[in-house]
Amino acid sequence: MTSHRCLVSSGSPLEPEIGFSRAVRLGTHVSVAGTAPIGPTGATVGPGDVYAQSVRCLDIAEEALREAGATLSDVIRTRVMLVDIARWRDAARAHGERFAHIRPACTFVEVSRFIDPDWLVEFELDAIVTEGEVPATGSR
Q: Most exposed residue of 31, 49, 86, 137, measured as fewest CB within 10 angstroms of its CB?
């Protein structure tokens, strides 16, 4: 059985510069890269608001999963990175709204900063798809 590699792009100009994809699916495994609270115009969503930024990060990550042929139900691990761990409950509320019934393994960590100082949180997700084919879209 041959596994196909599917790359999901967010359209960020940094992807080719850094050499990364928003998400990668190889066989049944999907990994979503660190996802920041960037809006459609490129501006930070919810400046100063960890909850609003968390919701935006999860919206982006969920779309990347969908493009890779996965859903939130396939997520087995999440990582939540915050610049101020004291504000973890704001990120946890957004996480719980999506994952209360799925309950993936989850880790919250504090980081010193992100690329953009307005970003307060980033999310990473890993999923295993138990059904379905690798989407025809994306690079292989």
A: 86
Q: Name the DSSP letter for residue 85.
A: G
Q: How far apart are CA 69 and CA 28, in angstroms?
A: 9
Tens of pLDDT, residues 4-38: 899 999 888 778 899 999 999 999 999 999 999 99
For 37, the 3-state DSSP assignment is coil
| Amino acid at residue number 13 | P
> Measuring CA to CA, how many Å separate 110 from each of 79, 84, 86, 95, 129?
11, 6, 9, 16, 29
Phi, psi of 138 (to 5 degrees): 90, 165
Task: Please say whether the beta carbons of 42 and 82 come within 8 A.
Answer: no
- The pTM score is 0.90
Q: What is the SS3 assignment for 101-123?
A: CCCCEEEEEECCCCCCCCCCEEE
Which residue stretches of the chain are H helix? 14-18, 50-67, 88-99
* Number of other residues whose CB lies within 10 A of the CB of residue 57: 30
